[in-house]
Design a protein that fits this description.
binds coenzyme A; 2-enoyl-CoA Hydratase, Chain A, domain 1; alpha/beta; 712 residues; 3 domains; Rossmann fold; N-(1-d-carboxylethyl)-l-norvaline Dehydrogenase, domain 2; 7-stranded mixed β-sheet; 31 helices; 52% helix; 8-stranded mixed β-sheet
């Protein structure tokens, strides 16, 4: 034994080859403060030991190293520049010393080598992996960039173009791709990996390990013309893809460009300086915050699943787009699903919906023909309630009408087993209302999927007045087993997501009534605020009939602030059957292009209708549009936290991001409020207080602002 630390050990074998094996006490190896210190001590021990012939760098866990410890990041980002520089400098000196050891080095990669893990293997001369190896530099997804030499070594090893592609997308790469690109020198069977590493070290005379080092520590070999072409192309692509709200990818390209003519140590200083700049951005704090929030939400789901009954057989009532989507998602994840409707045509539609989705996956090579057949055979269409016996869970997804739902739920309860849990996929109707039709409301809750089911990550699990903990745990566990992120919320009209979405739509109605332009609002909310689509387009996707109905439910549920006076834009379009994408005409006109994708153009009919009804056109400042749209949503989100509809700011922010596509670089409503400051927000809201109760700030929020409190 050369060295034994808390997170790794170094041993020396009889053949003179040493092995540095990462084996942290937790579930994964990560480069936290403790791991870096032990690595430093291990390198010192290796430097001091004579007669070592080579070094294997390995991991005792299934994943090699998952990166720097993200849970330490927000504290790190708050450090002054000098302390951040000394952290980065120290980590880099460790990897430089590893790279400069006086004998050849090989990393053996199983599973993930991400971020700092990837930077660690880049510091060795050679890299071998097995088929499970997944290598990447995901830092830009967290709003930062590699800081332990990734922007220096990767371009020198793989070329600037490939390195920029890896770093700006943040994707990880499978073993065969890594071999093709040259980051892995070989891919071998897991059982042979170690021997292959030893053999490589014993044969290094043939492999020019010093040449490898020179390549990684010298300037990039690019002619002036090549460099100009390469960096200009990368900048163009990054600007188009990442856009102005995500500064990290372009900073990474600029860093590689600025350091292209430098050798290792000077290039590392450029990386360090630019890394520090990125830690000061609000995007970095928001994106790291999302990782932490996601961890919290997942750990809650894991805890619930521990004590839950597993769902192996599920039935879905109603074979519409949602029912078909839910049944298909369940079957894809290995839960067999019965799909019940009242006539064969409806069942056929549900099966067609599932078939459409699976065929798309087949075309994209995500599944093969066998898997497609397996999934389809796991969905059993039926007209009979008798098939519901033996089910662990029945999800009701019939039309959004309280009377019909109540009838279907009552009939269902007669047919299911004693222990079967029933869940409703209603998007707005209070669960405790629907539960009145049941004799066992404790075995009933909401399970609100979002459309399209296979793409939208969120499932709201709604606890009714009488819902039992066992019921909630089972439905949470089932949603997680279906590959979704479940978030438990308490009951009210619209639950959490729709309750906060509709005030935003009401802000939109009001802006249109005051003469704002449809496309202008969408442009500002997309480009300036960062929503994936503006409110008009979103309403066209949702459908004006659905939105009109849900707006009514919300107005009845919260008449004090959500009752709209006169006909709103949504009412007007609904009455004129301008339903949106579903019939080709809404706020926009929708037509398929040659590739079958829907494209929008202005709809003069909608514009004329609004002009005729509201009789004015007005232009608004971008900040005004943002405030008038966002304040109603933010106020409602705050109310939901105050009323315990949602348990924490972290869960609220994740529900907004996973359910509505709230701009990730803002981190969610609560992270956004913390970022801009509550006083700034209050000024924005108070300026528009005359617009009505949706714009009124709660007393508690005002109190928090007075005391400079934050949500995180
Ligand atoms: N820092 C801190 N913790 C990390 C981590 C990191 N970089 N990467 C993973 N973890 C933790 C997870 O939070 C989880 O913790 P838990 O057991 O307490 O819940 C555990 O490691 C396992 O991760 P999980 O996400 O549940 O496993 P997975 O197999 O689904 O995914 C990864 C594994 C590595 C793909 C995924 O965790 C990931 O993408 N991590 C971030 C990697 C990254 O960005 N690294 C660069 C940092 S600069």
């Amino acid at each position: 034994m050369i060295y034994q630390g808390e997170t790794l050990s170094v041993t020396l074998m009889d053949n003179g080859i040493a092995e540095l094996c990462f084996n942290a006490p937790g579930s994964v190896n990560k480069l936290d403060g403790a791991a870096l210190l032990t690595l430093e001590a291990a390198i010192t021990a290796l430097e001091k030991t004579e007669s070592i012939k080579g070094l294997l760098v390995t991991s005792a866990k299934d994943a090699f190293i998952v990166g720097a410890d993200i849970t330490e990041f927000l504290d790190k980002f708050a450090l002054p520049d000098s302390e951040l520089a000394s952290w980065l400098g120290r980590a880099n000196s460790i990897f430089n010393r590893m790279e400069d050891l006086p004998f050849p080095t090989v990393s053996l990669v199983r599973g993930y080598a991400l971020g700092g893990g990837c930077e660690c293997i880049l510091a060795t001369d050679f890299r071998l992996g097995d088929a499970s190896a997944r290598i990447g530099l995901p830092e830009t997804k967290l709003g930062i960039m590699p800081g332990f030499g990734g922007t220096v070594r990767l371009p020198r090893l793989l070329g600037a173009d490939t390195a920029m592609e890896w770093i700006t997308t943040g994707r990880d790469h499978k073993a065969d791709e890594c071999l093709k690109l040259g980051i892995l020198d070989g891919v071998v069977d897991t059982t042979k990996l170690r021997d292959a590493g030893i053999k490589l070290l014993q044969d290094t005379g043939l492999h020019h390990w010093q040449g490898r080092r020179r390549q990684k520590t010298s300037p990039l070999t690019l002619s002036k013309t090549e460099a100009a072409m390469s960096f200009a192309t990368a900048k163009g692509m990054v600007a188009a893809k990442a856009g102005p709200h995500y500064p990290a990818p372009i900073m990474a390209v600029n860093t590689i460009e600025a350091a292209a003519g430098m050798s290792r140590d000077a290039a590392l200083l450029v990386e360090q300086e630019n890394f520090i700049t990125l830690t000061r951005t609000t995007a970095a704090r928001a994106l790291v915050g999302l990782f932490l929030n996601d961890k919290l939400v997942k750990s809650k789901a894991k805890k619930a699943a521990k004590s839950a009954t597993a769902t192996e057989r599920m039935a879905v009532l109603g074979a519409g787009i949602m029912g078909g989507g839910i049944a298909c998602q369940a079957a894809v994840k290995g839960i067999s699903a019965v799909m019940k409707d009242i006539n064969n045509e409806a069942l056929q539609l549900g099966m067609d919906e599932a078939g459409k989705r699976l065929n798309q996956q087949l075309e994209r090579n995500k599944i093969d023909g066998k898997q497609l057949a397996r999934v389809l055979s796991d969905i059993r269409p039926t007209l009979s309630y008798d098939e519901l016996s033996g089910m662990d869970l029945v999800v009701e997804a019939v039309v959004e009408n309280p009377g019909i739902k109540a009838k279907v739920l009552a009939e269902t309860e007669q047919k299911v087993d004693e222990n079967t849990v029933i869940a409703s996929n209603t998007s707005t109707i209070p669960i405790s209302e629907l539960a009145k039709s049941l004799t066992h409301p404790e075995r009933f809750c909401g399970m609100h999927f979002f459309n399209p089911v296979h793409l939208m990550p969120l499932v709201e699990v709604i606890r009714g007045e009488h819902t039992s903990d066992d019921t909630i745990n089972q439905v949470v566990a089932c949603a997680a087993a279906m590959g979704k992120t479940p978030i438990v919320v308490n009951d009210c009209p619209g639950f959490f997501v729709n309750r906060v979405l509709f005030p935003y739509f009401f802000g939109f109605n009001r802006l249109l009534a005051d003469g704002a332009d449809i496309a202008e609002i969408d442009k500002i909310m997309e480009r300036r605020f960062g929503w994936p689509m503006g409110p008009a387009q979103l309403l066209d996707v949702v459908g004006m009939d659905t939105a009109h109905h849900a707006a009514d439910v919300m107005a009845q549920g919260f008449p004090d602030r959500m009752q709209q006076s006169g006909s709103t834009a949504i009412d007007l379009l609904f009455k004129q059957k301008l339903l949106g994408q579903k019939n080709g005409h809404g706020f926009y006109c929708w037509q398929q292009d040659k590739k079958g994708r829907l494209q929008k153009t202005d709809n003069p009919q909608a514009q004329a209708l609004l002009q005729q009804s509201f009789g004015q056109t007005n232009s608004f400042e971008a900040d005004d549009i943002i405030a008038r749209m966002m304040v109603p949503m933010v106020n409602e989100v705050v109310r939901c936290l105050e009323e315990n509809i949602i348990a924490s700011p972290a869960e609220a922010d994740m529900a907004l991001i996973y359910g509505l596509g709230f701009p990730p670089f803002r981190g969610g409503v609560f992270r956004w409020l913390d970022t801009i400051g509550l006083n700034e927000y209050l000024a924005m809201a108070d300026h528009h207080a005359g617009l009505g109760p949706l714009y009124q700030i709660s007393d508690r929020l005002r109190h928090m602002a007075q005391h400079n409190q934050t949500f995180y």
